UniProtKB/TrEMBL annotation:
<dbReference type="InterPro" id="IPR054708">
    <property type="entry name" value="MTPAP-like_central"/>
</dbReference>
<dbReference type="InterPro" id="IPR043519">
    <property type="entry name" value="NT_sf"/>
</dbReference>
<dbReference type="GO" id="GO:0016779">
    <property type="term" value="F:nucleotidyltransferase activity"/>
</dbReference>
<protein>
    <recommendedName>
        <fullName>Poly(A) RNA polymerase mitochondrial-like central palm domain-containing protein</fullName>
    </recommendedName>
</protein>
<dbReference type="Pfam" id="PF22600">
    <property type="entry name" value="MTPAP-like_central"/>
</dbReference>
<dbReference type="GO" id="GO:0010605">
    <property type="term" value="P:negative regulation of macromolecule metabolic process"/>
</dbReference>
<feature type="domain" description="Poly(A) RNA polymerase mitochondrial-like central palm">
    <location>
        <begin position="2"/>
        <end position="167"/>
    </location>
</feature>
<dbReference type="GO" id="GO:0031123">
    <property type="term" value="P:RNA 3'-end processing"/>
</dbReference>
């Protein structure tokens, strides 16, 4: 396993090609966006995803790129939302060329960006803007590289930084462990997150990576790098003064709040409980723990537990799958058969409101308050930054 992992490391020429591409794109975008970029250095193109932290499983993994806007480091802030807080929805707003705000420069328009790439002297081919998505992107090819690029949607970039920080703590266990899990998932068609192969969507590599971190946290082989994160009493996504926060998802009417604080190094005094743990042992332990083998006492139970690295690995699940659905059905059945339809709708809306109104006090979920939409999930793998979101698809879907 270790030899296979080492052989998957990208050759120096691929790394050099990626760095050269970042420089070329940075120069191109700064020149093209000169109207809002008087000093010529407002934008910087960077790479994120598994390539950025050494989690590739092949030497030809696709590249995820982001245009970092140094004038809007907090991203899709509330003052730039397509629909202000409290205003009515625009309906089918996904795919709009830019947020409806004069303060947003044209580089955020995926059609504008695609045209700049097409007109770059033949350097970029197969250029295709994808606007109807939470994170609008442009897909393109250059040489042997296939790339997706977005503008200042920094969620994936921060996710990669967090995973990289965990990889630094345990580079020769965590990285080959994730490599092995991703190869296993690919061999069994379990990582087709977008259902591109016309099968039922399964889970993303990111979801598997979070499960690996959580397992290593549980056994004491990794720390909680988000220990000490400041948790607001009430979640207010439209409050622009929140500490350590960014807003993502430029394709939505309103941005998603992400709490991005984490430690670069383990908390003071932390030491691994397994200094001699090997990657092979970690992979074996991962499968033993999550497979729920009968007769084993210390195994993961998705009906009673959930994966949450922001809370240190594995925490109690507030209620088993479909509990709220059954309670809702029971509430409806207890109504008198002659109850008018309007009254039924009103009572059911009150039932839902009583549950939904608690979500503002969720925090990281450690207090036992979680979103109602999690009720239907077989497996909950919580996003470490967007606390009300679960990662991946199928059992992990959000």
């Amino acid at each position: 396993m270790m030899n296979s992992w080492r052989m998957s490391e990208p050759p120096p020429e691929r790394t050099a090609a990626i760095l050269a591409l970042l420089d070329r794109l940075t120069a191109l975008i700064n020149r093209a966006g000169a109207r809002d970029n008087h000093r010529g250095n407002r934008y910087r193109v960077d790479v994120f995803g598994s390539v950025s932290w050494g989690g590739e499983t092949t030497k030809s993994s696709d590249l995820d790129l982001v245009i970092v806007d140094t004038h809007l480091l907090r991203g899709y802030i509330p003052s730039l939302w397509k629909v202000p807080d409290g205003a009515p929805s625009l309906g089918n707003s996904r795919g709009m060329r830019t947020p409806q705000n004069d303060n947003v420069p044209p580089v955020y328009d995926m059609y504008w960006l695609a045209n700049k790439l097409r007109n770059a002297g033949g350097t970029y081919s197969s250029v295709e803007p994808i606007t109807k998505a939470n994170t609008p992107i442009v897909k393109f090819k250059t040489g042997a590289l296939e790339c997706d690029i977005n503008c200042n949607d920094m969620g994936g970039w921060y996710n990669s930084l967090l995973i990289e920080a965990y990889a630094r703590v345990s580079p020769y266990v965590f990285r080959p462990m994730v490599y092995a899990l991703k190869k296993w998932a690919a061999a069994h068609d379990l990582n087709d997150y977008a259902a591109r192969n016309k099968k039922a969507a399964t889970m993303s590599s990111y979801c598997l990576t979070l499960m690996a971190i959580a397992y290593l946290q549980k056994i004491g082989a990794l720390p909680n790098l988000q220990q000490g994160v400041e948790v607001p009493v009430v979640c207010e996504p439209s409050n622009p003064r929140q500490k350590d926060a960014i807003w993502i998802s430029w394709g939505r009417e309103q941005g998603q709040l992400a709490h991005i604080w984490f430690r670069q190094d383990p908390p003071a005094g932390w030491k691994t409980k397994h200094p001699h743990l090997t990657a092979a042992q970690a992979v074996f332990g991962f499968f033993r723990y999550y497979s729920g083998i009968r007769g084993e006492t210390d195994v993961f139970d998705p009906q009673k537990q959930m994966v949450s690295i922001v809370n240190g690995g594995i925490i109690p699940r507030p209620r088993p799958q479909n509990t709220l659905q059954r309670e809702r059905q029971d509430f409806r059945k207890r109504m008198h058969p002659d109850t008018p339809r309007e009254e039924i709708l009103r009572l059911m809306a009150e039932f839902d409101y009583d549950i939904d109104s608690q979500e503002r006090y969720m925090g990281t979920g450690a207090k036992g308050i979680v979103p109602r939409k999690w009720d239907e999930k077989r497996l909950i793998v919580q996003d470490p930054f967007i606390w009300e979101k679960v990662s991946g698809r199928a059992g992990c879907a959000g």
